[in-house]
Structure formats: C-alpha cells, structure tokens
Amino acid sequence: MSRTSVLALRLAGPLQSWGASSRFTRRTTEPAPTKSGVIGLLAAAAGIERGDDGRLAPLAALRFAVRMDQPGTRIRDFHTAHHGVTGASMPLSERFYLADAVFVAAVEGDHDLLLALRDALRAPVYPPYLGRRSCPPAEPVDLGLYEDTRLEDVLASVPWQASAWYRRQRRTPQALTVLRETAADESAAAADVQRDQPVTFDAAGRRHALRTVVTDSVSTPIPSGGGGPQDAHDPFAALEALENESA
Amino acid sequence: MFLSRFRVNTARPGARRLMSSPQAMHAAVMSSFPHILPSDSPAPDAPRVLWRLDQRARAEVLLYVVSPDRPDLTHLVEQAGWPAVAGPENPGWQTRPYAPLLDRLATGERWAFRLTANPVHTIRRKEGEPRKLTAHLTPVHQMGWLLDEERQQRCGFRVCEKPADRRLLPEGTTHQKRPHPGDRYELAVRDTRSLSFDKSRTAGGRQGKPVTVVIVTFEGRLEVTDAGLLRRTLTQGIGRARAYGCGLLTLAPLPPSDQHTA
Questions:
Q1: Gap between the Cα atoms of A70 and A177, Å rounded
Q2: Distance CA B235, CA B42 (A)
C-alpha cells in the first residue's frame, strides 16, 4: 500500500453552480461543490476525455470532502437563448448559481496520483471551471498537496479562505461546515446519501452512483492580515529602523 | 536631505484650497524654505524639493516632503493643519534626516516602494504633425512607462518579478496584440487622477487654459541595481510634473515574512 496524501483545492469565483439532482430545464445547484463536479474538474485538467471510464475510475475512487468557507448566496437566472446558427429559440430554463462563495475541497488517495493531478492543475489540458463552463475560478485552484495525512486533518488546518470583506464582518472564529465521505473504517449509519458518485461522464449518458455524506464542523486558523487597513506604506519606518540600529 | 510628513486637516477651507490645486500646494511647500522663492527653479542636477499627497483613509491625507533643507511647515499647520495638537515638542509635522537611509542603500537590497508620477509619452497622430506630450491613460501603459528598461536603469532600480506560483496570468498581449506585462511584476497601479487647475493669471490679466495632469500612484517592490543612481532618484524625482506633486519615490522595509521569499 503506497502513501496516502491529500490534495486541497480552493474553489472561489463570482459564480459557481454545482448540480447533483438537476433534471430538464430547472438546473439547480447544491449549496456546496459536488464530488462529480470536482472530480470532473480534475479529470479535465488531466486531459481525460469523456467516455474514458478506465482513466476516470481511479479519480472517482478518491475520498472527497468540502469545507464551506464562505457559503455565498443563491441566485436564479431566467435563461432565454437562441440557436447561434438557425436562430431558433432554445428551451426556456432556470439556472441557479452560488454568488460570491468560497469553498475548500480536498481529495484523499494515492500520493502519486495526486501529485500528477496537482501538476495537471498547474498546466491543465482543459481549463478548470466551477461546475459550469461559464463560471471560471477567480484564483488559482491548487491549494497544495499534503503528504501522509488524512482528509479531516487537512481541512482542520488549512487557513480560512474567505474574502477579506467577509472576514471583516465576522471577526470571531467561525465553525466551518465540512461535508465529507465516510472513511473506510467508519460506519455509514449516520451518513446521508447523495447520487453524486461519478461512474461515467460519457456524453451519451452520464451516470452517477450513490455516495455517503457526513456533516461535521471544524474551527480553522484565521489568516493574519486582510482585515486591517489597506495602506501600510510608511517611509518613516525605514528611517526609524536605522536609528534604532545605531542607538 | 530631510524627509517630512504633515497630516492635512481635510475639514479646513485652507486644506481644501491646497488639495484642489497642485499649484497652490507647491507654492505652500516651497514657502517652507526661508531662503528660496517659490518661483526659483533648481539647478538641473541638484537635489530639489519633492512632495506628494498620500490619501490613507477618507479623511487622512498625508503630505510627504523630501528637501535639501529642513522645512518649517508652521504656516501649513496654521492654514491646513491641527494647531491645537502642535506643541513645543510636536510642531505639527515630523522631519527626519534622510541621509542615514540614503548612505546605507546598497545594491541588491529589496524595498517596498510608492511613487506618484506623471506617466507621459510623445505621440504624433498623423504624419508631419509635431509630436505632442500625451498622458498614458490605461494601467497597462502606465505600468509600461515605469517598467521601461531604460528608465529603470537610469533610476537605479528594477521592479521585482513575482515568483511563478503567485502569478495568475503569465505575460501576454492585450487584445490589440500589444505587449502586456500580465502580472509578472510586483507592481500595482493604485490610483489614477486627472487634475485640472488654473495657473496664476498672466501679466495681461488673461486667464490661460487650465493645466491638466494625469497622475498615477504606483506601489510595488523594487531591487536596487545602482545605489548611487537610486539615491539621485530619491532626491531628484522621476518623470515630469515634479512641481505638481509627482516624482517622489519613497521606500519602506518589506514585511519580515516576505524578505526571504525572493
């Protein structure tokens, strides 16, 4: 058995949309990133084509968790569109998005596989997006690879990623919700079940199996800075430092 | 050389008059030196009086002055300062000798910097037309002005490059296929202001056209490439409109956490 590592991702952007149970023209979003969405993002970065289920399987087997650093607000888009060539009306649809949300997602699994995925994120074959092609990430997605550790420990130690304005509004340490899959040695009795385990992303018919979701909460270290005054440039500081040195 | 800082009391009419006209502010700064007239122009290669207004918060405006002589800003305190705060210990402004810093500058050091400047170039819109001085209006061009190889060499510093893992975009081109620095450099354009103010009336009583200057505040990190040239830059300024609050470059130590990431 090779080493187990954890790859952490920062999912932040003006809009995100993570559907798990959408049907027909009402395209809903879950309140947090879905495993199928995040595995799809990683598979796209690694250049795995749709329908290549053999290469997808090891990715889908990774254990997944997500931490809600800044939940964001849900917005509804009443979507009208016309065909680009024929001009025919496309079906009216409702699309739901999360605005201004920040999440930390993490996958746990074989070290070599995660190392390859981390490199793929830095030079992706297909660019990453947050659940829907029209939702690009606002910041680099890669948050680092943590070696020889567990999913729970990484999500408890990565600093709070929320925007500065959001942190300013909530100075006190916040307990952050974590949605994670059960570990191998854990009973699934207390877990919810969601149809969100990717089986195939084949364009002819995507299929998803069920997976378990346990809701936890963690309190994480608050990063220094960000909330303070923006202007830090003080030309006198250099002079004072010199005077103190010579005194 | 001396570096001085004066906090402007923005609620006072005198302060508003000074802040609305770089012409008036320049005259006020120059009257802090008893033996020079505001209209005196310095010798081309001598240290000169430079000043800059920094807006820290909505009501916190600081005036920085770099000058060859120790300034007496009493008249500014009276017109646009906080006279009640001023006492024998605290005249209402701070002045420190600048020489210790200037003498200690060494090649290879890294500093955080701030610069308010007037980035301009000369262009000719059609063949045969005389070249005209024109302001750079977009951040890409404004940064390009400061990042210009020759200018950096002349000023004795180089703007630091970001480590690759902190860049969002590599360098590229603009949509018009012009070179674009991307976010390759530790450089930001904080503030672009277009100032328009009247010069004093001419002898004939005629009011000339107002003066317009586009001024930009740059912030970032630099590495000293030539201490002698940088010393000159710090005391003589960069670029045009130095009488109108442009060209003053100030240095501040980098936060300790960033000092060895370079």
A1: 10
A2: 12
CB contacts of A243 in chain B (<8 Å) are 100
B94 touches chain A (CB under 8 A): yes
Residue A186: how many other CB atoms lie within 10 Å: 13
Which chain A residues contact residue B109 at CB under 8 A? none
| Cβ–Cβ under 8 Å, residues B133 and B123 | no
Total CB pairs under 8 A between chain A and B: 45
- In angstroms, the separation between the Cα of residue A168 and the nearest Cα of chain B is 17
- The chain B residue lying nearest A121, using CA atoms, is B165
Q: Which residues contact A56 (CB under 8 A, 6 or more apart)?
A: A39, A43, A48, A198, A200, A201
ipTM score of complex:
0.76
Indicate yes or no: CB of A239 within 8 angstroms of CB of B104.
Answer: no
Structure-derived torsion over alpha carbons of residues A203, A205, A211, A213, reported in degrees to the nearest 10? 60
Q: Is the pTM of this model over 0.80?
A: no
Task: Give the closest-approach CA distance of B187 to chain A in angstroms.
Answer: 14
Q: Which of A31, A28, A39 is nearest to A68 (CA)?
A: A31
Phi, psi of B165 (to 5 degrees): -80, -5
Contacts of A144 in chain B (CB under 8 A): none
Q: Which residue from A minimizes the CA distance to B64?
A: A235
State how far the Cα of A104 lies from the Cα of A180, in Å rounded to an integer. Answer: 12
DSSP reduced 3-state for B7: strand
The Cα of A242 is separated from the nearest Cα of chain B by a number of Å equal to 7
- Is there a contact between A236 and B168 if contact means CB atoms under 8 Å apart? no
**A239–B98 CB contact, under 8 Å:** yes
- List chain A pLDDT tens, one digit each, 247 residues: 568 999 999 999 999 999 988 888 899 999 999 999 999 999 999 999 999 999 999 999 999 999 999 999 999 999 999 999 999 999 999 999 999 999 999 999 999 999 999 999 988 999 999 999 999 999 889 998 999 999 999 999 888 888 888 887 876 667 899 999 988 777 777 788 888 999 999 888 889 999 989 998 888 777 655 444 445 688 888 888 887 777 6
Q: Which residues pair with B26 in a beta bridge?
A: none
- The closest of A3, A9, A33, A4 to A180, measured between CA atoms, is A33
3-class secondary structure, B17: helix
Q: What is the DSSP letter of A92?
A: P
